[in-house]
Amino acid sequence: MNSASLLAAVDLGSNSFRLSVGRVVELSNGIRQIYSIDRLKETVRLAAGLNENLVLDDIAISRAEAVLKMFGERIKDFPPQNVRAVATNTFRVAKNANKLLQVSEAALGFPIEVISGQEEARLIFSGVAHELPPSKENRLVIDIGGGSTEFIIGKGLEPQIMTSLHMGCVSFSKAFFPKRELSEKAFAQAELAASKEIEVIRKSYTSIGWKQAFGSSGTAKALVAVLEDTGYSEKGITLEGMLKLRKTMIKYGMNYSSHVLGLKTDRTEVLPAGLSIMIAIFKSLGIKQMHQGEGALRVGVLYDMLGRQADTDKRDETVDLFMHRYHIDKRQAYRVESLALNLFDDMGEGFEEDRKYLTWAAKLHEIGLSISQSSYHKHTAYVLENADLPGFSKDEQKNLALISLMHHGSLNKVDLDTLDASKIRAILSLRLAVLFSRSRQDLGLREIQLTHKKEKSFVLEVPKDWISNHPLTKYSLNLEADQWMNAGYNLKIKGY
Fold this sequence. Notes:
Keywords: Hydrolase. The protein folds into three domains: about 5-115 and about 300-305, Nucleotidyltransferase, domain 5 (2-Layer Sandwich), CATH 3.30.420; about 130-295, Nucleotidyltransferase, domain 5 (2-Layer Sandwich), CATH 3.30.420; about 315-495, Hypothetical protein af1432 (Orthogonal Bundle). The protein is built from 19 helices and 14 strands. By secondary structure, the chain is of the alpha/beta class. The strands form three sheets. The protein has a six-stranded mixed β-sheet, sandwiched between helices. A five-stranded mixed β-sheet has the order 3-2-1-4-5, with helices on both faces. The N and C termini lie far apart (about 55 Å). It is elongated.
């Protein structure tokens, strides 16, 4: 099968790494469906390598590298646009995450996006929802990962409320079951710690409510299998069944429980912690029964890729939402966007990724005005880098924030020599578009053109008669040229 017709999602969790390969099929009604054709899962226990200072040890990094080399072999012939790799909690919290990311990307052979807890929750819900029958009722989805647990309530394919809490089966195993000893005290301490985390969200979730609850994690899958096999639960996960399971595990210990329950050793070692978290969730939220959700983060990633390729990019929806939320002057935003893209395109093709960032930055560059006119570009950049932007990875938010920050004021806020040519083009295009649009009026301007002559040299051609009738713009353009000269670049303003 031609790899160009396949999509691959890589989920770098704190406990396990997973690879899913899906084939896109268009149904008779025009809806496109993804059918799984290959899956790989390896336990890495990445979070177990974090010390008290949140530094990840070399052994854990080596485990990650070895697994990703195997994954890389499987997808090495895939087009880059058909692969998306996302990393979660351990990549978010590790102090030496840059080293981990560098090693991991080299091993996999593809870029890796570190996503926020909110984005992780959104993708998890999407994955679960796509694998379930359509419903107009609220659904609660819980995903207990290795280092974090996601809580989502949504309807259909759309999440309504999402939260990621810092508790997971690997981090709790390390904290409460370090010697693999199962005792009443250890379980009680783990449940109490989880309950304290959940208390922060309890009221908001129970007030919204849900019709059905689903667990999408390896913990949920293991609990469903064990509870049904032992007869502790007739179907799915119940509090009564989990309390019976806890009693059994305390009575027989870790090793015997692994044998009796028929679990793999790697799952048994984190099950007590996962069980403790799930019991706390049931008690805190008043859940009666939980079913297993077949989809998960990796399925959500596959459908997100499918949406991007079909021009239904979640990031575009988020940008539109933020334009509304921050009361942005849309006519001005679209005016700036149009001119910025024209200038960017004048300099050549082949820079589609930064063209997208330029589009989003142009639409959102005035967000900061809702905070203060003074240094508004800095406020804009702060919001874009730190807000929860559904669909965007952390690195994507940083790129968006960078271009937005640089659209106004001094160029010495960053070292331009550390940026690639495409980023420089995007920044220059946006700065000029904002400069020309200062009057917030349609320009009535004949064609202007921006040319990238050589590495650090640009030429902006403007009609002579127009520029002579707009002295403020002419003055501002000269100041802009000086700014670029001070930064080591040549921007020539040429009349024609």
